[in-house]
Amino acid sequence: MKTLYDEIGQERLFQMIDRFYDTLFTTSSIKNLFDEAQHESIRTKQKMFLSQFLGGPDLYSQEYGHPKMKLRHMPHKITNEAKDEWLRCMKLAIDSMEFENNLGEALYNCFPQVASHMVNS
Q1: Which residues have CB under 8 Å from 26's CB, separation 6+?
Q2: Res. 100: pLDDT tops 90
């Protein structure tokens, strides 16, 4: 059975992630939550994590251990508004890719529940 990672492919997934962060780091209302010195590291970790999360190779776990995303996000104040802005930026990035056959919708639907789980403020 094909995973979302298989259907999207690494190249398009990484391109989508770059588009997401291009928006998030420059024009989003939550750009201040991300240390500018860490932008490239953040992109790389997200590429590794989403590869694994979407059914591809477990790149993140090989490098950093179990994702423990809730714990890793605890030092950051994440409000419902921040979650909504993150999801808005993700939706823009996904839509910009013009994925075929409802693939974009399936991909986006992976995020709202996880994003809600990160809210801690």
Answers
A1: none
A2: yes
